[in-house]
Amino acid sequence: MIRDSISTLQIRDSLQHRRQTGMFGRRLGIAVLAASLVWSTAAFARTAPETFADLAQELTQAVVNISTTQKVSGRRGEVPIPQFPPGSPFEEFFKDFFERQRPGDDGRGDNRPTRRVSSLGSGFLVDPSGVIVTNNHVIAEADEITVIFSDEKRRTAKLLGRDAKTDLAVLQVEKEEGDGDLPFVKLGDSDKSRVGDWVMAIGNPFGLGGSVTAGIISARSRNINAGPYDDFIQTDASINRGNSGGPLFNMDGEVIGVNTAIFSPSGGSVGIGFAIAVNLAKPVIQQLREFGKTRRGWLGVRIQPVTDEIAESLALDEPRGALVASVFDPGPAAVAGFEAGDVILKFDGKDVPRVRVLPRIVAETEIGKAVDVEVWRKGGKITLSVKIGELKEDEVAALTSGDSGGGASSSIEALGMTLSSITGDLRDRFEIGGDVKGVVITEVDDESAAAEKGIQAGDIIVEVAQEEVSSPSQVLEKVKEAKDSNRKSVLLLVQRSDDLRFVALRLEKT
Question: How many other β-carbons are positioned within 10 Å of the β-carbon of residue 53?
Answer without folding.
Answer: 10
